[in-house]
Amino acid sequence: MIQTEFTGEDNEFVYAGHRLRIGDHGTFVLCNLHCRELGRHCHIDYCQSESEENCKLGNQGQHINEKVQLNPDRSKDFISHKLFWERTEQQEFSKCDYECSDKMHNKFQGSSTPKSFCELQLFHAHLNPSSNLLNNIGYISLDGHHFNCENPSTHKAVYYIIFVLNHSGSMDNRDKKPIPNFPIYNKLIKNYNNRIGTVYQAVYQFMDARINSAQANQNQILSATRRDSISSILFDHEVFNFARGGTSYELAIQKAGFLITNYFDPKKENIIIFLSDGSCGIPLNQHHIICKQNETKGFPLYLYMVLFGRNSHSHSLEEMAKIAQSYHPTNTSSGALRCQFTRTMNEVNLVSHFTNVAESLRNHKPALLKKIK
Ligand SMILES: [Zn+2]
Ligand SMILES: [Zn+2]
Ligand SMILES: [Zn+2]
Ligand SMILES: [Zn+2]
């Protein structure tokens, strides 16, 4: 006796932990093996002839005359397991194997957006990215594939930004002070009329530039998950400890890595803006571990190292930026962000550098990275 797997009365039901839907070719996750576990059974699929007279399924199927749920007006057939899988595989495996490179599909740490494959036939001719889509669904990638998902180049990049700021004794030095006539100047000079006060001013300007760029995109209503998140870490020889001492880059970068792991969001790029006035050894091991972890997730870190103060150079800050950049793909588009080391000589340099970084984040199109294939 034939066991009928889909009754046609329920749109959706669960078998062996899998949620199944009627006639939804290729989109449900019933694996052939699970299906076999049922023993003899049949499936329901849309009729490919649309009428009983033309429906010639032989001994592999039977036209259904009643209306069956999920688009009841489209006629359906009972079909054999064999025919069902022939159709599914034919559809699925004759198609192009290129995937949409949007990080929204990255499965790491629970992105809910499934992978999206090119809708065209395998070895199709590459489409012109500016040509019109027949069905107006999805987009054509720069390399000529058609995906049914949202065009990633229209996404506005969103970030998790971590400021890692040296707060050691030397940051009290008054050789650098907040710039007068800038916002929050009067508040800052009460307690921070020194190097760290200037840094706070630069951070303030940075935030202001990010807020302005969000407002400039008012036509895109951003949900809470599509907004930047910000953290700041103050360090000297310890993190979050105001005792004046030396400078530990190791603890600082370790803390930043910890925050990124704990608050990981596949919709956000991770940016670290690391500022110091002094030199300190490079925490090589720790730094490589953090860069590697994030590269593996498909989200290499963007590290902005900033030297501020009297020192004219910092080998360690420069080297940390180079190491972080080495974990990025080499074939990125010219507009992509890059890890960098910058020496800021004075207050004006520092504030304008932070504003420039904010500006570069605004122009960044995360998903325009070229995919290696
Ligand atoms: Zn039929
Ligand atoms: Zn089956
Ligand atoms: Zn394709
Ligand atoms: Zn996509």
Automatic annotation (TrEMBL):
Gene3D superfamilies in alphabetical order: von Willebrand factor, type A domain
Record protein name field: VWFA domain-containing protein
UniProt cross-references to PROSITE patterns, sorted A to Z: VWFA
InterPro entries assigned: VWF_A, vWFA_dom_sf
Domain VWFA: 160-372
